[in-house]
Amino acid sequence: MTRNYHTPLFLNEIRDLLREYSVKVLVDGTFAEGGHGLTYAKEGYTVLGIEYDKELYAISKKKVHDAGVNCTLVHGNFANLDTIVRNAGIGRIDAVLFDFGISMYHLRASTRGFSMESDQVLDLRADSAAQYTGRDVITRYTKEQLYDCISENIESIDTGRLVDTIIRYRGKQDIARASNIWAIAREYSTSKHVQEAVVRGLLQLLRVEVNNEEENMKSGLQKASDLMDGSGLIITITFHSREDRLVKLFFRTSKWTPVFKKPLKHTSYAFAKSARLRAYVSH
Predict the structure, then answer these.
(1) Pairwise CA distance, residues 201 & 184, whole Å
(2) Which among 176, 210, 244 is the end of a domain?
(3) Looking at the domain assignment, is residue 115 inside a domain?
(4) Which Gene Ontology molecular function entries are recorded, alphabetically (predicted)?
(5) Is residue 145 domain-shared with residue 200, that is, in the same domain?
(6) Which of 60, 87, 90, 142 is the most core-located residue (most Cβ within 10 A)?
(7) Least confident of 41-55, 92-106, 175-189, 237-251
(8) Are residues 231 and 93 in the same domain?
(9) What residues make up the domain containing 175?
(10) Is 126 inside any structural domain?
């Protein structure tokens, strides 16, 4: 039996939304291990799942086949949502779900450098066809590029001093593994708390840069909005403030109406304390 690493959040809350808005056809733009999409397919919904990571796609393709449910899984990027939906031939869609950010599979099972808990190569590509790796970003970006990335992705940090630490470190040693990121953090601060924040932040920004995550988010949200113009439901789960801010800004200038006055927070799991659920409708 294939092990499940990912714990799907807000399952009941999303289920309630699907019922309230009479959803029949759901697109799960971030299928991963099927925690959301496969669960709802087993409950009778027609689901189109999209998974960008080839490893996860292969694992979940077998799960979908074995489940024998009305679920189509496609290897692709939700940034191309319109093309994927059109090629799938499922007709009118009622809702799109985005669980943005990293999957627990990447943190616990992948060997591509997503986790700060083990000394892995700084690959950080969700798709092996991506143009460059995390190592490329941190060793080739100019001082100005690093400053922009860090200031946008890591809060409560002396950005200039951290950039100088990175530049100084890479002048004497290659930055190829997670252990090098930890070494940079130790040079930056003697505080373990600060060191952890630096490592977590650097790995996150490298992942965001390598996988073009923010531009993909904007594209996915826009195409979901266009596909369901006039009637539909868009559901988002975010884990860090920059993701959540991007979602808020997108819908602030759209015709979509928020379902909740404030995003729902998750309280059941310690790892999910920063998770936020938002939903928007168009009538």
Answers:
(1) 12
(2) 210
(3) no
(4) rRNA (cytosine-N4-)-methyltransferase activity
(5) yes
(6) 60
(7) 92-106
(8) yes
(9) 131-210
(10) no
* Paired tokens of 91: 């007709």
Token representation of residue 8: 């799907």
Reduced to 3 states (helix: H, G, I; strand: E, B; else coil), residue 123 is coil
Reading the block at residue 218, the tokens are 């904007």
CA atoms 241, 206, 166, 115: torsion sign: positive
State whether residue 9 is helix, strand or coil.
coil
Of residues 34 and 1, more confidently modeled: 34
Q: Count CB neighbours of 86 within 10 A.
A: 11
Q: Which two tokens stand for residue 184?
A: 């940079």
Domain boundary among 210, 232, 258: 210
Instruction: Identify whether 25 is part of a domain.
Output: yes
Residue 182 lies in a domain: yes
Half-sphere exposure of 188 (CA within 13 A, CB side): 27
How far is the CA of 254 from the CAs of 231, 257, 267, in angstroms?
Answer: 13, 8, 30
pTM of the model: 0.90
Whether residue 259 sits in one domain with residue 223: yes
In 3D space, the residue among 254, 197, 203, 192 whose CA is nearest the CA of residue 224 turns out to be: 254
Please report, for the domain that includes residue 260, its CATH number: 3.40.50.150
Nearest to 219 by CA among 50, 91, 96, 77: 77
Q: Could you tell me the maximum CA-CA distance found in the chain, to the nearest angstrom?
A: 60
Say if CB 164 and CB 154 are below 8 A apart.
no
> For residues 128 and 111, is the Cβ–Cβ distance under 8 A?
no
Taking only the tens place, the pLDDT of each residue in 117-160 is 889 899 888 877 778 899 999 999 999 999 999 998 888 899 99
212-224 pLDDT, tens digit per residue, is 999 999 999 999 9
1 confidence band (pLDDT: 50, 70, 90): very low
Domain count, the chain: 2
Residue 232 has φ and ψ, to the nearest 5°, of 170, 180
